[in-house]
Amino acid sequence: MSFPSRRLALGLAALGFGILGGWTAQAQQPDLSGKTVMVGIHNRSPWGYRDKDGNVIGYHPDLVRAALAPLGVKKIEFTVADFGALIPGLLANRFDIIASGVAITPARCQQVLFSEPDLSAGDGLLVLKGNPKKLHSYEDIVKSPEVKLGGGRGTENAKNALAAGVPEDRLLLFPNNEAVVSAMLAGRVDAATLSAASVSGLMEAGGMNGIERALPFKGYVKPDGQEYMMATAVVFAPKDKELQAAYNAQLAKLKADGTMKTIMAKYGFTDAEMPPKATTAELCAAKP
Questions:
Q1: For residue 272, how many other CB atoms are within 10 A of its CB?
Q2: Which contiguous run of DSSP H or E holds residue 50?
Q3: How far apart are CA 202 and CA 44, in angstroms?
Q4: Which CATH class for the 12-120+231-285 domain?
Q5: Would 12-120+231-285 and 123-213 be classified into the same CATH topology?
Q6: 3-state SS, residue 184
Q7: Nearest Cα to Cα of residue 264 among 276, 275, 256
Q8: What are 42-79's pLDDT values in tens digits?
Q9: Which residues contact 13 (CB under 8 A, 6 or more apart)?
Q10: Do 113 and 240 meet the contact criterion of CB atoms below 8 Å apart?
Q11: 189-230, pLDDT tens digit by residue?
Q12: What's the CA gap between 140 and 166, in Å, rounded?
């Protein structure tokens, strides 16, 4: 049985959590010893995925392990789902946490709780070897009516492509990266929009013969003139404010002692991908 979707009675309120899930001055660390936490991932490098031996690795799984260990959690079980099925799965109690590169958006904040931000990443583009269509921006795709673009179902990057003017009938959506890459190699699409981090992860993982990253690539430019950068975080169900608060307290420690930066470096992230200064509350309240 897992915490908290299986309704284990931990008495967290008695340990000092406030009505809004924040820590009080006398708060104690909750004891989750012996509890199993179910975590949803979408099997995408570098966010959360299974390696060739079946082990779950990735930036967010490593971060969650580091944050939950001091709370006494000894067992974490991972469930793989399509990206678009992660939030519905969380709300249906299939797992307790999503740890797989989910961006904080006002729309998602209406459905779920986010931890504080833990990374920033912009749009990226996969193209065929040699970039025969010379695609270096969404604008290039818009101006080339013969170009078809692939994207992940439910991702912000696919939404950004539409917002940048890519016609809906030229954007094909797929459940995962493997399906997008297969579609490119089969000639169904000419390019694929993913987060810059996901594109880098795929290229570093190898096995991408015939495909490369489009460099440079200019992503979606928002109405305020700033290029889109997503802030990622771990996701919790609305009823789990106590778990969110406990996680945030540990995440703050991982940021302060350098552990988060070490995990970032392990997966190829640099200072350019450090989380924004904005808080989750500010990002949730931001205008689209």
A1: 10
A2: strand 49-50
A3: 8
A4: alpha beta
A5: yes
A6: helix
A7: 275
A8: 988 889 999 989 999 999 999 999 999 998 897 999 99
A9: 242
A10: yes
A11: 999 999 888 887 778 777 678 899 998 999 999 888 888 888
A12: 10
